[in-house]
Amino acid sequence: MMVNKKNMSVNKLEVGMRLAEDVRGNGQVLISKGVTITEAAIRRLEDSYFINEVEVYSEEDTYSDDEVKQVKNIQEVDKIFNELSFDAEQIFIGMENLKVSDIEEVKKFARKIQFELESVSSVVKNIVLHGSGNDTIYRHCVNVSALSSILGKWIGLSDNEINLLLYSAILHDFGKTKIDKKILDKPGTLTTKEFNIMRSHPVIGYNYIKEIPFLNKAVGYAVLTHHEREDGSGYPLGLKGENIHIFSKIIAIADVFDAVNSDRVYQQRKAPFEALEIIRKDSMGKLDYEYCNIFLNHISNYYMGERVLLNSGEICKIVKIDINDIARPLLLVNGEFLDLKEHKELYVKKMIF
Q1: Which of 153, 138, 111 minimizes the C-alpha distance to 250?
Q2: Which fold has domain 5-66?
Q3: Mean pLDDT of 329-349
Q4: What is the CA radius of gyration of the chain?
Q5: The pLDDT of residue 40
Q6: What is the pTM of this model?
Q7: Cα distances (angstroms) measured from residue 96 to each of 83, 138, 208, 249, 270
Q8: Pairing of strands 336-339, 330-333
Q9: Domain 72-269: what homologous superfamily?
Q10: Model pLDDT, residue 297
Q11: How many CB atoms lie within 10 A of CB 40?
């Protein structure tokens, strides 16, 4: 199948067109390739005076390159996530002796994640639909690694930085493998002692990882500080703002997003838009505000046009998302608009992919 592209002036863009290439500005990805153009996207481009035209897919062929190369359904992508989770477990098991070969295995695994999970749409949909369940180490490691890589690209990191970020994300919860599973899998409230043991996993992981020969120090530091928070309320060092490494800031967002999208022994997963709202709220002091904005602006594009189930039982289609009130989108049901801002009794219960 041939894929046709054409350059289009920003002032001639129409809702429903799809971007054929990333739109970049100031070293950052403003809107990702494959995203369907919305009214908000058009306004954003119009406000960017340095962008005059963008590349879109022509009307006669609106498929993205990813869709043409490989059409993967949710089940197929989930199978890949499961296989990668098994690979992660084997790597962690083999890291007891901390040899040079260990980091080579991590690098090889990072390349595999990038290759197998190249479709941003598939990654987002799978994580929103499945999360990482009760697997708080290996499936969580894969989900956080995939999301961190995606966010790193949206932010505009270099290829080398993306690689180091991926190594950090893969290893961020390695310390949990050294914690008693009775504590990890405890369904009830942790005791103070157990809670402190759980909070020690970044230090445990760091103390292991820093001994790997020839590993960039930024990786170990990111593992140590991925639970630090902008206001100093994080752990283990209580760092604030600029003292937190950029990799840690990115991993923190991916970590929270996967956790709230997952069923855990201690909590039920959040509704899809509630998960986005948590990232929005945490951006006000806990998580990096700029990176959260980039994350939400981009990831919400992958919700557009999808079907959702409301708590009322109605099935609707997402028409528009307001980043400033992200949990209450504009929907289309039976040919009529339904604005959740005006119906506080309704909420999106689940996505239907």
Answers
A1: 153
A2: Molybdopterin biosynthesis moea protein, domain 2 (3.90.105)
A3: 92
A4: 21
A5: 72
A6: 0.79
A7: 22, 16, 9, 28, 36
A8: antiparallel
A9: Hypothetical protein af1432 (1.10.3210.10)
A10: 92
A11: 18
